[in-house]
Design a protein that fits this description.
The chain has 352 residues and is α/β, with parallel strands linked by helices. The protein contains 13 helices and 10 strands. The chain has helices at residues 3-6, 13-20, 24-38, 82-94, 114-126, 140-149, 162-168, 174-186, 203-215, 244-257, 274-282, 302-312, 329-351; strands spanning 43-53, 99-104, 130-134, 153-155, 190-192, 195-197, 222-227, 262-265, 287-289, 315-316. Helix 11 (274-282) links the parallel strand 8 and strand 9 (287-289). Bound molecules: S-adenosylmethionine, 6-(5-methyl-2-OXO-imidazolidin-4-yl)-hexanoic acid (DTB) and iron/sulfur cluster. S-adenosylmethionine binds at residues 57, 63-64, 66, 103, 105-106, 134, 136, 156-157, 159, 196, 226, 228-229, 231, 267, 295.
C-alpha cells in the first residue's frame, strides 16, 4: 500500500467517537495490531528535553508554569549560551537519547535570537543527535532559517480542540498554530504536534483534537500526548483528574488514526503508575521524554525508566538514519556508533 493510502485525513467525529466507545480490549487490540504493522513493537524512541529560555512568557496558556500571567515561582531567565546547551546535549546523547528537544518560553523568536538558536541546532546536530525545537510561532522565513541550520523537527502543539481552545489560551489563536505548522512543513522539517489531556475537556474535545491532528497532510511524524501536569499557581492547578483509562483510550485512538506517526507518551509520566505507562505502550505509544526534567517540571528519574524498560522488555529505538552534517560526516558516524553502543548498554543495563 502506498504511504498516502495509509494516511487518512478525513476522519469524522462520529467515526472517532465510535473508536473511543469500543470495548477497552477491542480498542487496545486494534491499536496494537496497527502498531505492529508499522513499527518494531518493543522499540521506544527516546528524546531528552532542555529549556533553553525559561519563564516570563507573554502568552496566557492556562496549563503553563512558564506563563508570565501566573505566579508559579519561576524566575525570568535569559536565552542559554550555546556552549551550555551543547554540554547538556552531549550528556543526553551519552545517556542514550537519540533526539534533543530545545524549548523556549516565547510567543515567537525575536530576529536577534535566530542566529543563536541556529548555532545551537548546528552544534547539537554535529554531536550526531536529531534536533527538535519549540520556540512558539515561527514565520515562513524563520522556519526556513531553522531548516537551513539543519533542524529535524519543530514542535508546536494544537493543545486541544478548536472548540475548547478559547477556554485555555486567549493570546494566540488556533488558526495561528496551524499557520506555524504550515510554515514548518513548507520549510521541509518534520512536524511534531499534539496536545494535552486532563484540562477539563470533554471526550468530544479529545476526538476533535485528534481529528485536527490527523487532518494534517501528511500526518505529523511525531504526536506528543501530554497528561496535564498540574502546577500550583496556574489556573488549572485544581482541575479534576482525567481517568487514566480515558488517557489510554486517547493514545490508542491516536495510534489507529495516525498509524505511521510516533505517538509520544509525553508529560505527566511522573504521576503515572507503571501499569498505566505499560498500557500506554500497549496502546501504541512508542516515544518518551527521558531524563529527570521536562522543561521545568519533573520527569521520572532515568534509572526508574531503565527499570521500567527492563520489566516490559522495551528497548530504545535506534535511528536508521542520522543525518550527517555535510562537512562533518565522520564525526556524525562516530556519534552514531556511540549512540548505538549506549542504546545497547541501556538495554543490557536494564536487563541486568
Ligand atoms: N512556548 C512554546 C509553545 O508554546 O509552543 C514552546 C514551549 S511550550 C512549554 C510546549 C508545550 O508544552 C505546550 O504546547 C504544551 O502542550 C506543553 N505543556 C506546557 N505546560 C504543560 C503542562 N503543565 N502539562 C502538560 N503539558 C504542558
Ligand atoms: C510537548 O508536547 N511536551 C513537552 C514538549 N512538547 C516541549 C513539554 C512538556 C512541558 C511540561 C511542563 C514543564 O515541564 O514545564
Ligand atoms: Fe508560553 Fe509556550 Fe507556556 Fe504558552 S505553553 S505560556 S507559549 S511557554
Amino acid at each position: 500500500m502506498s504511504e498516502a493510502a495509509l494516511q487518512r485525513h478525513d476522519w469524522s467525529i462520529d467515526e472517532i467517537n465510535a473508536l473511543f466507545a469500543l470495548p477497552f480490549n477491542d480498542l487496545l487490540l486494534r491499536a496494537q495490531q496497527t502498531h505492529r504493522a508499522h513499527f518494531e513493537p518493543n522499540a521506544v524512541q527516546v528524546s531528552t528535553l532542555l529549556s533553553i529560555k525559561t519563564g516570563a512568557c507573554p502568552e496566557d496558556c492556562k496549563y503553563c508554569p512558564q506563563s508570565g500571567h501566573y505566579n508559579t515561582g519561576l524566575g525570568k531567565e535569559k536565552l542559554m549560551e550555546v556552549e551550555k546547551v551543547v554540554t547538556q546535549a552531549r550528556a543526553a546523547r551519552d545517556a542514550g537519547a537519540s533526539r534533543f528537544c530545545m524549548g523556549a518560553a516565547w510567543k515567537s523568536p525575536r530576529e536577534r535570537d535566530m542566529p543563536v538558536v541556529e548555532e545551537m541546532v548546528r552544534q547539537v546536530k554535529a554531536l550526531g543527535l536529531e534536533t527538535c525545537m519549540t520556540l512558539g510561532s515561527v514565520s515562513d522565513k524563520q522556519a526556513g532559517k531553522l531548516a537551513e541550520a539543519g533542524l529535524d523537527y519543530y514542535n508546536h502543539n494544537l493543545d486541544t480542540s478548536p472548540e475548547y481552545y478559547g477556554e485555555i489560551i486567549t493570546t494566540r489563536t488556533f488558526g495561528e498554530r496551524l499557520e506555524t505548522l504550515d510554515h514548518v512543513r513548507s520549510a521541509g522539517m518534520k512536524v511534531c504536534t499534539g496536545g494535552i489531556l486532563g484540562m477539563g475537556e470533554s471526550e468530544r474535545d479529545r476526538s476533535a483534537l485528534l481529528q485536527q491532528l490527523a487532518s494534517l497532510n501528511p500526518h505529523p511524524e511525531s504526536v506528543p500526548i501530554n497528561m496535564l501536569v498540574k502546577v500550583p499557581g496556574t489556573p488549572l492547578e485544581n482541575v479534576e483528574d482525567l481517568d487514566p483509562l480515558e488517557f489510554i483510550r486517547a493514545i490508542a485512538v491516536a495510534r489507529i488514526m495516525m498509524p505511521q506517526s510516533h505517538v509520544r507518551l509525553s508529560a505527566g509520566r511522573e504521576n503515572m503508575s507503571e501499569s498505566t505507562q505499560a498500557l500506554a505502550f500497549m496502546a501504541g505509544a512508542n516515544s518518551i521524554f527521558y531524563g529527570d526534567k521536562l522543561l521545568t517540571t519533573d520527569n521520572p528519574q532515568a534509572d526508574r525508566d531503565r527499570a521500567l524498560f527492563n520489566k516490559l522488555g522495551l528497548h530504545p529505538e535506534t535511528r536508521d538514519a542520522v543525518h550527517a552534517g555535510e562537512d562533518d560526516a565522520e564525526a556524525a558516524q562516530l556519534a552514531r556508533q556511540m549512540h548505538l553502543a549506549k542504546a545497547r548498554e541501556l538495554a543490557v543495563d536494564a536487563s541486568a
